[in-house]
Amino acid sequence: MLSISNLHAAYGKVEVLHGISLDVPKGKVVTLIGSNGAGKTTTMRAISGMIKAKAGNVTLAGVDVTGLASHKIARAGLAHSPEGRRVFATMSVVDNLLLGAFPRFTRMRPRGDIKQDLERALELFPRLKERQTQLAGTLSGGEQQMLAMARAVMLNPEVILLDEPSMGLAPILVEEVFRIISRLKAEGVTMLLVEQFAAAALNVADYGYVLENGRISVHGPAEKLKNDPAVKAAYLGGGQH
Predict the structure, then answer these.
(1) Which residue range forms the structural domain that includes residue 16?
(2) What is the dihedral sign for C-alpha 106, 43, 186, 207?
(3) At 225, which CATH number?
(4) Burial class (CB in 10 A: 0-12, 13-18, 19+), 172
(5) pLDDT (0 to 100) of residue 77
(6) Would 24 be classed as within a structural domain?
(7) Which residue in 36, 116, 188, 223 has a CA-CA distance of 20 to 30 Å to 210?
(8) Confidence (pLDDT) at 239
(9) Are 211 and 33 in contact (CB under 8 A)?
(10) Distance between CA 7 and CA 82 in Å, rounded?
């Protein structure tokens, strides 16, 4: 569904990704784990067109989207829930969600039943349902994270990129976020997940890749990675869920 081949990306002259390759099959959850500065967020940004790849290919549902502008990649069916949430603070919760469906309103993506999908998103995120008329900027950090995820769902995408959905959240909200990811997975939503809580990510994922200094160091079924001594020592130690 989403295939990354030999991807190189840089900020200015500093190359961050040194030729990474990974696959996200349809209906699966794949996680990308690694320490801070390994290049996880850069990978997400290069996939969604927020930064231009220096080399390599990004293929979405059989279509080469390498080098396309972000809005064109979104139209092709890639939704990105970015690190730091980036909700539209002066707009209501519902208006933020409807903006997520914008390419469907303009017929750039199959329209489907937007009203029904809005109701589904609010059912999936009950906190948002309670606050649907509230301005997004007045929500708590956890609620804004849920809004960013729900906005991505509203595209009715082929693939969702989730970048650090638990960052800065209280433990009870981290559990809520992963409950929602599990529910989306059960509904067959294809996801690439970057997450600081490696153990929680591997618990929900089908397959995992470990990124070290801009290169994939090891990859395999999530269950296998959870039991890999090197992965356990580096990423599944103290404080991880």
Answers:
(1) 2-235
(2) positive
(3) 3.40.50.300
(4) exposed
(5) 92
(6) yes
(7) 188
(8) 39
(9) yes
(10) 19
The pTM is what? 0.90
Please give the tally of structural domains in the chain.
1
Please report which confidence band the pLDDT of residue 238 belongs to, taking 50, 70 and 90 as the band edges. very low
What's the mean pLDDT when you consider all of the chain?
A: 91
Asked whether residue 241 is domain-assigned, the answer is no
Q: Indicate the helix (H) or strand (E) that contains 138.
A: none
| Alpha carbon distances (Å) from 181 to 110, 118, 191 | 24, 17, 9
163 pLDDT band, cuts 50/70/90, is very high
240 within some domain? no
pLDDT of residue 205 exceeding 60: yes
- E strand or H helix at 115, and its extent? helix 114-124
For the cut 70, the answer to whether the pLDDT of residue 31 exceeds it is yes
SS3 91: coil
Task: Give residues with Cβ within 8 angstroms of 129, minimum separation 6.
Answer: 122, 123
**Which tokens hold the place of 236?**
């599944």
Sheet holding 191-194, edge to edge: 78-81, 159-163, 191-194, 29-33, 207-212, 215-221
Write down the residue that tokens 């690190």 correspond to: 83
Is residue 138 assigned to a domain?
yes
Which stretch of DSSP H or E encloses residue 123? helix 114-124
* 159 alpha-carbon distance from chain centroid: 8
Looking at residue 237, its pLDDT comes to 65
Answer for the pair 127, 172: CB distance below 8 angstroms, yes or no. no
Averaged pLDDT, 100-117: 88
